[in-house]
Amino acid sequence: MLRKAVVLNPFAQEIFFPGDKYTLEKYGIIAIDCSWAKRQEVFLKKFPGINLRLPILLAANPTNYAKPQKLSTVEALTASLYICDFRREAENLIGIFNWGHTFLQLNREPLEEYRLAKSKGEIHSIEKSYFYC
After folding, report:
1. Where are the domains of the chain?
2. What is the Cα–Cα distance from 7 to 50, expressed in whole angstroms?
3. Residues with Cβ within 8 Å of residue 13, at least 6 apart in sequence
């Protein structure tokens, strides 16, 4: 079953979108917890599963605050849950951290738009409107 799970990979070519909800529910989601300093070395390995990158979001963790795509593992999992309309679960997960609510506040608008997107093309357009002005 792991070969069909979604693997959150910041270097993947394909983007995660709400249409991946079925795969997430049926096969699960995998987030690799590693230091950003070692991310290239770690993610150069081929992980079994469907490797997808999240749409661009800003980190709220104290180490990488407001840096695009420098999400902690819990931020990445939270974003994937939120995008697939598991908002309550996303809020509960990120709420464990005292800075967690900041992640949702900082990314409120793009997360909502990503959640409502109907295609990967629409996700790309939303990314551009927020982060490539």
Report:
1. 2-131
2. 6
3. 53
pLDDT in tens, 92-133: 999 999 999 999 999 999 999 999 999 999 999 999 999 986
Full-model pTM: 0.93
- The pair phi, psi for residue 30, each rounded to 5°, is -120, 130
Q: Which residues are bridge partners to 8 per DSSP?
A: 31, 52
Residue-wise pLDDT tens digits, 67-80: 999 999 999 999 99
